[in-house]
Amino acid sequence: MVRALRISAGTSARKQPPSYAHLSPEELMDQAKHYLCWQCYTPVPSGHKFCGRCGAEVPAEILNARTIYFSDMQNPAKARLVLIRGEGMDGLSYHLKMEQHVVGKKGQIAFPDDVFVSPKHANFFYRDGHLVVRDEGSLNGVFVRVRGSIEVQPGDTFLAGEQVFRLDAAPRIADTPDGEGTYFYTSPKYTSAFRISQLLQGGALGMTVCARGAALQLGREGSDLNFPADIYMSGSHCRIEDTSGRFQLTDLNSRNGTYIRLKAERELGHGDYVFVGRKLMRVEMNA
Fold first, then answer.
1. Which one, of 89, 73, 90, lies nearest residue 81 by Cα?
2. Are residues 219 and 124 in the same domain?
3. Together in a domain, 219 and 148
4. How many domains does one find in the chain?
5. CB atoms within 10 A of CB 163
6. Are residues 148 and 257 in the same domain?
C-alpha cells in the first residue's frame, strides 16, 4: 500500500509539457529553430519527434513551426521580409511566395497587436518580376528608408529616430494693421525658405522650426533641431536643403536611418527597409 502511494505521488509530480499559447509567431519560430527538450533540456535535432536522451515527445506546436521554417528553406520565395527586433537583430521571416501579400491587423502578414497598423495597411506584390509595395489607404502610412538624398516636396512626411516630421512651405507674411492702424507685436521676422513641423501622436503639432538659411539639420545634438533624449537619433541625423526652390532630404549616415512616407507605389530592392506601423522589415531578394 505504501509502495503504491509512493508511485502515485511520483507520477503526480512529473513535469508537464509547456504551453506555447502565449508566444508570438516570431517567438515560437525562434523556439522551434533552437528547441531544447522540455523534460531534460537536451537539444533535439530537426526532424526528430522525440528527445534522444529521455524520450519526451516534441510538442505539436514546435513540430508545426519547424515544418514551416524548413519548408521555406527548401523552397525559397523570390523575396522575403525580415522583421527587425531590438538592437537590429533579425526576427521572423515572411516569405513572399504569392502574387500579393496584404499586411495589416489581418492578412497574409498580420500584426494584430500593433495599434498603429490599420486593418489593411499595405500590400507587397510582384509586377514584371519586381517586388512593389503599396499603401492601402492606411492611417499612418508606409515609410521606406532613404538611401543618400531624395527630392521631397512641401507636405511630405518623414521619420528620423522616433520623431515624425512634415516639410512645410514658408509661412505667408500677413503683417498688416488692424482697423485702427495698429500692428500686432511679434518676434523679429526672418526670411525662410521652408519649415519643419513635428507631428505628435493623435495628429497634433509639436515644435515648428523655420529654416534661417538654405538648409536645416536634425539630430540629437549640435543641429538646428535637437532631440537629446531620442536614443534612436544620431548626433547629426538628416538634413533638408532648398536648392533653387527644390527640396532635398539627405540622410547623414545615421545609424537607424531616415524614412520617407510613400505617396505612390514603390519598387523595392535588396536591402531596403520598410516601416509599417511600429514594425520595421528588411527586404531580401533571392537570386
1. 90
2. no
3. yes
4. 3
5. 19
6. yes
pLDDT tens for the chain, 287 residues long, are 434 434 344 444 567 778 777 776 667 767 777 788 888 888 888 778 888 888 888 888 887 775 555 455 444 568 999 999 877 778 888 989 888 999 999 989 999 999 999 999 999 999 998 999 999 999 999 999 999 999 999 999 999 999 999 999 987 766 778 888 888 887 777 778 899 999 998 889 999 998 988 999 999 999 999 999 999 999 999 999 999 889 999 999 999 999 999 999 999 999 999 999 999 999 999 86
CA dist 116 → 25, 30, 279, 281 (Å): 19, 25, 9, 15
Cβ atoms within 10 A of the Cβ of 147, count?
13
Q: Is 259 exposed, middle or buried (0-12, 13-18, 19+ CB in 10 A)?
A: buried
- Same domain flag for 116 and 164: no
Give the domain CATH number at 209.
2.60.200
How do beta strands 109-110 and 100-104 pair?
A: parallel
Backbone angles phi, psi at 7, to 5 degrees: -65, -45
Identify whether 1 is part of a domain.
Answer: no
Single out the residue of 250, 273, 282, 275 nearest to residue 148, CA to CA: 250
Using the structure block, give the residue that is written with the C-alpha cell 509595395. Answer: 133
Please tell me whether residues 167 and 203 are part of one structural domain: yes
Range of the domain at 120: 97-141+262-285
Whether residue 193 sits in one domain with residue 52: no
Neighbours of 135 (CB within 10 A): 20
Query: Residue 105 corresponds to which cell in the numbers above?
Result: 491587423
Beta-strand (E) ranges in 185-237?
A: 194-199, 205-210, 215-219, 225-226
